[in-house]
Write a structure and sequence with these properties.
The protein is of the alpha/beta class and 293 residues long. The chain has ten helices and eight strands. The chain has an eight-stranded mixed β-sheet, with helices on both faces.
Length: 293
């Protein structure tokens, strides 16, 4: 008989939202900060930041469907779905609002959408090297792209490829997009998240719908104003090989910060894209500034 190793149980709890069990980790006390990761990310992306905040606030991290330890969602990502999911999660957890929304990369689309759709529930935004598209347009054949992404993810699961290469893919990403060049997350949770059959289907689907979600946000910006709340944007400027590329990125994120009268952009020359790993102190400071505002 082959011995099977028990699957480790992650910290936190599971909350069912629209039929999907989401993995949630809640720590600290005080005003609520809801954190969401970038494309394909998981709750442990924020591990270096959370200890800097829990004395001042309650930090709630969650895995989007199919990522981390959350169940997949049969619905493909849309901006409205992701904003509504945050609202529904806050309701299910009975979190007192309004909230500070903390997001990395792609997650910035979702929390800006939340702020515009639920302005009365938004106390501030902290966007960590956020995704930004100046004139996004949805790509053609959306359903075909989604089917292809899920089919590829399913094939990787069926063949065991996801278990073999998922954690290695994360290490490769962090090596190129963090100046620390190493992962600080618990290896058990990395294996359970990135080695699962869920991960590639979810991450590939998020990637396949990236420009559709960006276009949704561009449309929403035209009809729903951003609430007048603190907006902090952290621009990772330390990962660019050319000064021209760095200047374009910094200029774009300064423009993003200017969407709010209370917006401010901080340029981090000593950080690559994963600012949470390279400069967790800067993220903590930005959150505390938003809380103070």
């Amino acid at each position: 008989m082959i011995a099977r190793h028990p699957v480790p149980v992650p910290p936190g709890e599971f909350v069912r939202i629209d039929g999907t069990a989401l993995h949630v980790v809640r720590e600290g006390a005080g005003p609520v900060v809801i954190a969401t990761s970038g494309l394909g990310g998981a709750w442990f992306d924020w591990d270096p930041v959370v200890p800097l905040l829990t004395a001042d606030c309650t930090v709630v991290r969650f895995d989007r469907p199919g990522l981390g330890y959350s169940q997949p969602d049969p619905r493909a990502p849309t901006l409205a779905h992701e904003a509504d999911r945050i609202a529904a999660l806050a309701d299910a957890l009975a979190l007192p609002g309004p909230y500070i929304l903390l997001a990395h990369s792609l997650g910035a689309f979702h929390v800006e959408g939340f702020a515009r759709m639920y302005p009365e529930r938004t106390a501030g935004l902290v966007l960590v090297d956020p995704s930004n598209e100046e004139k996004p347009r949805p790509r053609p054949a959306r359903q075909a792209r989604i089917r292809a992404a899920r089919a590829l993810g399913g094939a990787m699961r069926a063949t065991g490829v996801s278990r073999a290469i998922g954690p290695a893919a994360r290490r490769s990403i962090l090596f190129t997009q963090s100046r620390r060049h190493r992962d600080v997350a618990d290896a058990r949770w990395v294996r359970g998240s990135y080695g699962s059959g869920r991960f590639f289907a979810a991450a590939l689907t998020e990637n396949a719908t990236y420009f559709d979600v960006a276009a949704e946000l561009a449309d929403l910006r035209r009809v729903a104003p951003l609430p007048d709340v603190p907006l902090r944007v952290l621009a990772a400027a330390g990962g660019y090989e050319s000064l021209a590329a760095r200047a374009r990125w910094v200029r774009a994120l300064r423009t993003l910060a200017n969407l709010s009268p209370q917006g401010r952009c901080e340029v981090l020359d000593d950080s690559a894209h994963f600012v949470m790993l390279d400069r967790p102190d800067a993220v903590g400071t930005a959150v505390r500034e938003a809380l103070a505002g």
